[in-house]
Amino acid sequence: MSTERYNAREAEPRWQKIWDERGIYRTRNDDPRPKYYVLEMFPYPSGRIHIGHGRNYVMGDVVARFKRMKGFNVLHPMGWDAFGLPAENAAIERRTHPGKWTYENIATMREQLKLLGLSLDWSREIATCDPSYYGEQQRIFLEFLKGGFAYRRESEVNWDPVDNTVLANEQVIDGRGWRSGALVERRKLAQWFFRISDASEELLAGLDTLERWPDKVRLMQRNWIGRSEGLHVRFVLDHTPAEGLPEALPAEIKVYTTRPDTLFGASFLALSPSHPLTEQLAATNPALATFVEECRRGGTSTAEIETQEKMGYDTGLKVRHPLDGPDLPVYVANFVLMEYGTGAIFGCPAHDQRDFDFATKYDLPITPVVLPPDVDPASFSVADGPYEGEGTLFNSRLLDGLTVPAAKEKVALALENQILGNAPVGERAVNYRLRDWGISRQRYWGCPIPIIHCDTCGPVPVPEDQLPVRLPDDVSFDQPGNPLDRHPSWKHVNCPQCGAGARRETDTMDTFVDSSWYFARFASEPGSDPLQKQAADQWLPVDQYIGGVEHAILHLLYSRFFIRTLNKLGRVSLKEPFAGLFTQGMIVHETYKDTEGRWLFPEEVERDGEGRPVKVGTGEPVTIGLPEKMSKSKKNVVPPEIVADTYGVDCARWFMLADTPPERDSEWTSAGIEGAWRFVQRIWRLVGDAVVLAPDEIDRPVDFGAESLALRRSAHKLAAQVAEDVERLRFNVAVARVHAFANVFNDALAAARKGDVTPDLAFALREAATFLVGVVAPMVPHLAEECWQVLGRAGLIAEAAWPAVDPDLLAEDSVTLPIQINGKRRGEIVVARDASPAEVEKAVLALDLIAQALDGRAPKRIIVVPQRIVNVVA
RNA sequence: GCGGGCGUGGCGAAACUGGUAGACGCAACGGACUUAAAAUCCGUUUCUCUCUGAGAGUGCCGGUUCGAACCCGGCCGCCCGCACCA
Question: Model's pTM, two decimal places?
């Protein structure tokens, strides 16, 4: 028996060095084997990683290693989402350069990731802040522009008047700038947009092709795109000249509705405060202008929007009802969004909560037009609130008696056929919630938008031969605002078209642009063109993409749009970048606070004699809080280095895969990591014991005894089942199977120690050990290499094949069937695997326990489910 | 408010998608080995009872079925996404 413990601290760096020296994780594009691309969402280099960051990389690594063993040419790269605001904040706080800070973090985190023993092809590493990467992105931007997928328009931003800077939504807290505390204003700025809304329909339809995505994510994207079918309706303005109205008002107002059936319940029209007509009226109406101003000032936080009261301003205008109803007043209302539909609505208070609130406040008529099923029209009232359900139309002339869908159809037809001017009054329309993607950021640390603004030529693309537009290094962060804007020379250039003095665009791109194609960059070999069509077509789509649910919408939707657009521009052949998606759960950890409410690191807490948590050294009592996502601020983090030093990273990897289903949050506990450690040692011992009992590799004997055969069956079943579990990413189940097999193997070894080790048993023991090591190799790769060596196998297990399963060993000759009487389990019977139902039935009826239960009577019915169960109905 | 998901021992969870509920692990308890400890190994561990056996049991109530954790209806509780989208 082996007595040495497995020394992970010594073995792990040794194997990592060997892997590294032999370059076995370097992927070649000319490898003829079938491809498999596994990718974890690349990290933002924020400083240091903690063990909580490791889970998705470990999961991806298990898949990568498994697929390699299964004979695939695996691409498993890593890079850095390296642009972004935190680098600028760090620059301000630490008086350092964002690039320096970023690259230092990358260096640290790269070493930490390497510590985890991940089988990554580091030769393809990229950082999005590298000019070779963002230069290509600038080229893509210009192609988008040329192809009509990018454009510029005015759009509102959050403006901090003290810091003189634009704020991201998350930097606005309770309507104030997070740093300055100043009240945030909304300002209009000319900004660049990608026309993602034009792709709404294809992005929606494409979701149906993504069969290996979680339903939840597809649903979230579906809701985000927010397709709705409705009707555009033109309401003619009644031009009875009212006092003080400006000349040249438009003849009509167009609204969008999904409830045209409620047209006869309409009691007002409402315009958005940003509607062109509102602006026209406000120009000569100071009271309205003030009202619009008030609406604009409304808070930006969700809490404020939620509780905001409905407010309206009666313009004094009236419109005519298109179908012989009463004239309707036109309001401007704070709850009508300009960005959706036409920026104007008709209000039907009886059947819409918002309209109901509004009508109640301004004392407008509330006419019910939809009667719920089985309700008497005389007693039906909407005084307590609107009715938004299905029903039958009434109070609605031509629609009376129709169901809601039938009424929608009839109104649509009627309005389509009613021609006014040269166009129908009503037109069916599809609307999407999805808006265009604003990519301009008034920041330094991002990809510069390659545009030059000329007073005569307007915005002009930077010529191809002048790309990339590099960020200047000599910038200062001692004043608020965008350093590119105040740089002494950077932005002053000549117009590429007319040669006159011009200015560079000083906005940089949203970092979601950077992450929308990095997976395509990994496809081409290091040093080659960043976006090579052939390479992208070879490797994409990503076969298995792994990351957090927090990216379920934006990153994944933007990437889908980006790839589709690259496809239209002829840059890639595929339409969907990620064939398989998995969203993993977080690692959570208890939180600790001392008596003064200060957060404590886990290593600052221990148990006293009575098991109470106390502070190390002082013995001061400690309060334990609920497990939460690991975060620096709450100090509930575990650094990978500590785990590596005490238990080894294989233990950490095993722990992260075990027990909890991968999509759920998993709690990091010391008991858990100790359990993983015990099991790692157990595998080591089992393999060592097997080698002692069966020291030599021998040819497979022809015949096997019962014990040997049983062990072989278990081993082959293990390899088959774990393969399936890993394919389905059910790592916790795979781990449980390995545990169960270890128990079986342990018993077999104990029995073998007592008796003779016959050649067939020796073969079976060695085979079992080899299978065990092969099966755990993707999960605990260092331990597996060490065991591989103990087994005397040549080469590295990292390059070995998955254990070869003999299908004959998977099928048992006989099966044990449970026997139920009236649905309750009463016994069991062993029958041949291929026994016919009639044979089983006969054997069951012959049993004593059945005879007793039947007590002489004939059974009413016997259900035999082959290889499953027998149920006797007495 | 709208949309979606989930409720199984002291805990994390399995259950081949309608067929032996609780595999496997953690924790706990008992035992072996040891001068002792660590490590390891062997047991016990859903609940109840009249305990060599029997009954109940997958949030609660009901239904479908020979058979339900799984399907259907209605409650209760928790979690997530969206949020004035007309």
Answer: 0.93
